[in-house]
Amino acid sequence: MQNNFEKNNYHNHQPNFFQLRFSDKVFNQFSRFIYEQMGIHLSHSKKVMLQSRLTKRLRKLKINSFEEYFAYVTSDTGIAQEMPNLINAVTTNKTDFFREPKHFEFLCNIVLPEFYESCKGRKFKIWSAGCSTGAEPYTMAMLLEEFSVKHTGFRYAILSTDISTEVLDIARKGIYTHEMAQSIPTTLRKKYVLKKMGDDKRPLIQIVPELRQKIKFKQINLMDRTYSTITDIDAIFCRNVFIYFNRKTQERVIRQLCHHLKPQGYFFMGHSETIYMKNAPIKSVATTIYQKK
Ligand SMILES: C[S@@+](CC[C@H](N)C(=O)[O-])C[C@H]1O[C@@H](n2cnc3c(N)ncnc32)[C@H](O)[C@@H]1O
């Protein structure tokens, strides 16, 4: 006897997604295209993950094969309309408030006092590149706001960018699960976090509007040849992004990001990321913290 899925499938001539074949050939085509467009290197071990994520898109678009989906997403119309969905399907967005706290200690104890000594009324400019759903820029915002309360005249601007429009939408809203807020120190949580109830009655939190307004969110693909007119940045956090890039892309992106740093500006990378670059424009000053030469 046929089950319901088989029956409906047979009668409606709908694509049977359980039988879609994701050949090595088509995986390699996607992998090459994703590398060219996003810099993300997908090894063969990611084939099952990619197949499962793309199947959802095929289902939504009622497309019958991965070959057909590949032709669509690489066409002019597809690049305009489907590319954001492919990006969302491919990127990994794990993040946390106060992730890798040593970086934030360095920011508060070294970078900010140094800047304040010599700023002559200039705004402190910081960039979270590859910000995911926003925990990193909101952590910065809480600390910079605290610093500004204690240091008369200190002003700051936070730029927060990612390739994925989906994570940027979440970041703009600043709504997170109650569990995620647990890594925010209690005193800061009391000041900058509001309690909220989800539609399903799940306890959520939202970052206060005063802090949300302090951050400029923008889509930027780090693979682009230029990053618009962002200049004289005092500190760039580009953490846990380079792990997806191969060495050649890492070097190119680091060089390009450094163009936007002011001399002696700081560059923070994830704790599991190291760079071995010939003639790097930055020098190491602490574990995974660099300074523009
Ligand atoms: C694992 S998250 C890291 C988030 C945050 N920086 C942290 O350390 O908690 C990596 C982020 O890099 C973004 N990303 C990947 N490739 C990118 C690219 N080519 N340009 C810009 N962002 C990219 C992903 O969308 C994802 O949100």
UniProtKB/TrEMBL annotation:
PROSITE patterns: CHER
A molecular function (GO) term: protein-glutamate O-methyltransferase activity
GO biological process: methylation
Domain of life: Bacteria
Domain CheR-type methyltransferase as annotated: residue spans: 15-293
Catalyzed reaction equations: L-glutamyl-[protein] + S-adenosyl-L-methionine = [protein]-L-glutamate 5-O-methyl ester + S-adenosyl-L-homocysteine
Pfam family, one: CheR
Annotated keywords: Methyltransferase, S-adenosyl-L-methionine, Transferase
Cross-referenced SUPFAM superfamilies: Chemotaxis receptor methyltransferase CheR, N-terminal domain (SSF47757), S-adenosyl-L-methionine-dependent methyltransferases (SSF53335)
EC identifiers of the protein: 2.1.1.80
EC category name: transferase
Protein name: protein-glutamate O-methyltransferase
